[in-house]
Hints:
Elements: E1 4-7, E2 19-22, E3 25-29, E4 38-41, E5 46-49, E6 51-56, H1 75-85, H2 90-97, H3 100-113, E7 116-121, E8 137-138, E9 143-144, H4 148-151, H5 153-161, E10 169-173, H6 179-190, E11 198-202, H7 208-216, E12 220-223, H8 225-232, H9 239-243, E13 247-249, H10 261-270, H11 276-282, H12 285-290, E14 307-310, E15 326-329, E16 332-336, H13 338-344, E17 350-355, E18 358-363, H14 375-378, E19 382-387
Parallel strand pairs: 1-4, 6-7, 7-8, 9-10, 10-11, 11-12, 12-13
Antiparallel strand pairs: 1-2, 2-3, 5-14, 14-15, 15-16, 16-18, 17-18, 17-19
Amino acid sequence: MRGLTFVNADMGPRLPSTLRIEGSRIASIGAQAVPRDRVVDLDGDRLLPGLINAHDHLQLNSFPTPHYGRKYRNAGEWIADLNSRFLNESAFVACKAIPRDARLLHGGIKNLLSGVTTVVHHDPLYPVLTSTGYPTQVLDRYGWSHSLEIDGPQKVQAAHRHTPAGWPWIIHAAEGVDAPAAAELDRLDALGCLGPNTLLVHGVALDRNGRAKVERAAAGLVWCPSSNLRLFDATAEVTDLAHRGRVALGTDSRLSGARDLLDELRVAAELGVLDEPLLQSLVTDSSARLLRLTDRGALRPGARADLVVFPANTPLTQAARKDVRLVVSGGSVRCGDPDYASQLMAESRSVAVRVDGRNKCIASEVDVVMSDPHWACLEPGVEVLGRAA
C-alpha cells in the first residue's frame, strides 16, 4: 500500500522528525519513507495529534451569541432567560428555520477549521453525524443525559445504567454558582451515577471536597471556561484534577462559548492556572483517555492517523484557525494551506476558500455544507473562492 511520510516535522522534544501513514493509521515514527510513498517536507512545522473537542452542541453553532447583559446563578436561570428573551428575535428565528442537518454540518466545519478531528456532540447522534462526508469524526460510543434539571433523576439514572462501562457517560452538572448547582454532584452520587465512566460537563460549583469525590470515583470533568465566564463570571477550579489527567476541554456551542477550540484554549491559558503542555493534553491525550478513545490523542504507531499541522514554533494556545496548516482525519486530508494541499489533494477534489484572510483548500467531500445558501451568514470570516469544475 502506498503510504504518506512527513519529514522534518516538529513533534515535540526528544521525538523524531519523521512520521509515516499507511491507510487510516500511523505506521511508524522515526522510520524512513518507503519507496513510492508520497513525501511531504514540513520544514520544521509542528505536527500534533488531531485535536479533540470534548463538548459541543453541533446544531447550535449557527446561532448568534446574545449579549445577555447579566450573570446567572445556575444553568436553569440561563435557559429560562434564553427562551424568554432571545429565541423569538429575528436572528434566532432565521437560524431555527435552517434545516437541522445543515446546522449540524456547519458545526462540523467550525471544528474542522480549528484543527479538531474528533468532537463530542452532547445530544442525539443524528445520522448525518456519522456520514462519510461529515467534516470531523463524532464520538459514536457514548451515553448521555442533559442534566438533572432537564431530564429528572429517574431518566438520568436509567441513562447511566444503560451505558456500557467501556463508554463515557456525559452529563451537564454543577453548572452554576449557587447551592442547587453545588448539590448536583451529591445527587448524582446518591443515584449511583458517579463512576469511572462519568464525565461531568462544566463543574463550576465543585468545591475541594467535590473535586476529591470526582477523583476518588475516577470520573472526569469537561471544562468549558468561555461559556462559564460568560454566563456565571466564574469557572471550575481545574488545577488539581488536570494534573491527575481527569480534565478535558470543550467549547460548548457558540450560544455561550468561544468561537472554536483554539479560542477556548486561549481563554484557558489567559486564566493562568495551567501551563502550555498541560493545556495541550486537555485537547489530546487526557481527553482521549477520558472519552475511552484508545486509538487517538497521541502520535504513536497503530493510532488513528488524525493529525494537525501548525506553523513552526507556534504555541497551541496562541494559534488561531487561520494558522491551521493541515488537517488529516483517518489518513484523509480534510483541509490545509495551498502549499500542502497541492501535494496531497487533486485539484478536482478540493475547494478553494479564504479563512480569516488566509487562503485554504477544503476536501470536496466536506463541501456539502458550503453549498448551502445560508453558508455566508452561518460562518463569518469564511469565503468560498471557487470549486473545481
